């Protein structure tokens, strides 16, 4: 969902850095071969992730929700030369696709894939991180936050995607079987109230929150 008029949105994208060729290829192949291609971050959000990563210049990055690897490659653009990016996804059918594109990038040896539920994998990662991107199942966002906060270095950044959930976070009458909307409402409140982080919610695309560990 776009929260600004299409014409203005086109202008915004047009005046943003171009999408690297490798990511254009990845997007094309995702749309040809993989279910739910709209899950991919895409050109504009990808450039924002790249820019934030370059500003943070992280040594270690953690991504929760790899999908076909688009956002991982964007985040890797800002990583230090001796840095590592750890990315987790539960869908084993995506592993070879991700690896193919990671291997074509400049960061092949620095990107580490983890297959399984992030709830199981994060506690086993014996590392601290400077940048974390949360972009997996919405129901578990608060659990992910609680699992990573002690692994986040002071000054480290958590980026959380889809926090506006197409505007549904304003809807008090969500369906009974919709567990994601209340989970995101609770997550947004958690970020706002947790004194270990300072938080700004940006109305970019489907909502992207930046939280910085104090
Ligand atoms: C929105 S997509 C990620 C998009 C990707 N970050 C990008 O921008 O290109 C969400 C991904 O989270 C994964 N996922 C869902 N539940 C998960 C879990 N419990 N642990 C790890 N990954 C999960 C899905 O398999 C899916 O690939």
Automatic annotation (TrEMBL):
Gene Ontology BP terms: methylation
Keywords recorded for this protein, A-Z: Methyltransferase, S-adenosyl-L-methionine, Transferase
CDD domains reported in the protein's UniProt record: AdoMet_MTases
UniProt KW Transferase keyword: yes
Top-level lineage group: Bacteria
Protein name: O-methyltransferase
Cited Pfam families: Methyltransf_3 (PF01596)
GO molecular function: O-methyltransferase activity; S-adenosylmethionine-dependent methyltransferase activity
InterPro entries with a match to the protein in the record: Cation-dep_OMT (IPR050362), SAM-dependent_MTases_sf (IPR029063), SAM_O-MeTrfase (IPR002935)
TM region(s), chain numbering: none
């Amino acid at each position: 969902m776009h929260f600004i008029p299409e014409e203005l949105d086109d202008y915004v994208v047009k005046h943003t850095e171009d999408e690297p060729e490798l990511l254009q290829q990845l997007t094309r192949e995702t749309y040809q071969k993989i279910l739910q291609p709209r899950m991919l971050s895409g050109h504009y959000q990808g450039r924002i992730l790249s820019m934030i990563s370059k500003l943070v210049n992280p040594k270690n990055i953690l991504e929760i929700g790899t999908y076909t690897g688009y956002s991982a490659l964007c985040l890797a653009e800002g990583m230090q030369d001796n840095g590592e990016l750890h990315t987790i996804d539960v869908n084993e059918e995506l592993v070879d696709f991700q690896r193919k594109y990671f291997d074509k990038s400049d960061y092949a040896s620095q990107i580490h894939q983890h297959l399984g539920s992030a709830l199981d994998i994060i506690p086993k990662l014996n590392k601290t991180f400077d940048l974390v991107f949360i972009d997996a199942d919405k129901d578990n966002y608060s659990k992910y936050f609680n699992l990573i906060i002690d692994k986040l270095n002071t000054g480290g950044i958590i980026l959380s995607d889809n926090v506006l959930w197409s505007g549904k976070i304003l809807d008090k009458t969500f369906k009974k079987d919709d567990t994601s909307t209340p989970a995101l409402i609770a997550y947004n409140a958690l970020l706002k109230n947790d004194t270990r982080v300072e938080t700004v919610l940006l109305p970019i695309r489907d909502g992207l929150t930046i939280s910085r560990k104090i």
